[in-house]
Amino acid sequence: MNSHFDSSALQLSALQLAWLHELGIEKPWIPMPRQADQVQVSQARQASESAESSASQDTETKITQTDVAPSSNVFGAQTTATPSRTVSRFAQPVSKILAPVVRAGATETSALAAQAQTLDSLAQGIASCQACGLCMDREHVVVGQGVMQPAVMVVGEAPGEQEDRQGEPFVGRSGMLLDNMLSAIDLGREKNVYVANIIKCRPPGNRNPRPEEVAACRPFLLRQIELIKPLSILAVGKHAAQALLGVEAPLVSMRGQTYTLPHPGHTVPVVVTYHPAYLLRRPAEKALAWKDLNQTRDIVRAITGD
Fold first, then answer.
1. Nearest Cα to 101, choosing from 125, 69, 139, 136?
2. Taking the mean position of all CA atoms in its chain, how far away is CA 253?
3. Which of 42, 92, 205, 227 is nearest to 138 (CA)?
4. What is residue 130's predicted lDDT score, i.e. its pLDDT?
5. 3-state DSSP call for residue 232?
6. pLDDT tens string 142-192
7. Domain spans, the chain
8. Which fold has domain 104-304?
9. Counting Cβ atoms within 10 Å, is residue 75 exposed (0-12), middle (13-18) or buried (19+)?
10. For the segment 119-132, what is each residue's pLDDT rounded down to a tens digit?
11. What is each CA distance from 139 to 61, 92, 162, 164, 166, in whole angstroms?
C-alpha cells in the first residue's frame, strides 16, 4: 500500500491547510502535506499577512487624515496637529479644569488690578482673568455689592452656589443672616456697607479656596479696597481673615482684636468674626459675633464722631 498521503483526497485547499496549521490541529487524519503543498501553504500565508498589513496601514492613514484637524486652544488661537501624528479615535478629551496648565497667578492679577482706575474697569479685569482654574467652571464672577466709601466693608471667603448663579455676594440664608446682623448696628448694603469676597469665582463644590487661588485673587481685593475706600473692614470667616491680613492664626485667637490694613494715605481697621454660614450651623456662637459687631460699630463711631 502506498503510504504517501494525497491531500486532494480530503479536498482541502492550500489556504485551508494553512488555517488548520495556524490553529494547531495536527490530527492523524490530517497528515502534513507534501512539499508541493507546503509551498502553496507558505504562499497563501504570505498573501494573507500582506493583505492584513495593507488593511492596517489603510486604517491608520484614514484615522490620521480624518481625526487630526485644526482646533482652538484656551486662548482662542488656532492650532494644527502634526500631520504625521496618529490620533486615537478613543482618546478622551482633556477636562476643561485642566486646560489652563500654565498661569501667571498673582503676576497677572497684579497687572490687571493696577490698570483699573474705576470699580467698573476692575470688574472687567476680573471677568477676563484666567490666573487660576476657577474661571473654567463658574457661571458668574462675583465682584461685590454696596456703596462707595462705606462705613464697613464686609469681606468673605468665596462665592457659594447661589452667589455663583446670581452674580451677587452673600445671598440665600447666610446673606439674610448677614443683613440682619448689620441691620442690628444700623448698617446696610443700601446705605453704608459694601460686601465682597477674597475669591471672585466659586470653587467647585463650595470647597475651601486653595492657597494659589487666594494668592491670585488677593490683588483684586486690595485694589478694590483702594477704590472703595471703606472706613473699616469686617472679615468674616477664617480663610477671609487669614488671606486679608496675611496671618495663619486660628479665628478664635483673632477675634476681639483690631488689626490694621495698610492703605494709601492711611490705614483701615479690621475686625474678625465668624462667617454667617458657620453661625447657621452653630447658633450658640451668635453671642460672640454680636460682640464683634459692637466692636465694629464702636470703631466706626470713633472715626466719624457720631
1. 136
2. 32
3. 205
4. 82
5. strand
6. 999 999 999 999 999 999 999 999 999 999 999 999 999 999 999 999 999
7. 10-48, 104-304
8. Uracil-DNA Glycosylase, subunit E (3.40.470)
9. exposed
10. 999 999 888 888 88
11. 41, 24, 10, 6, 9
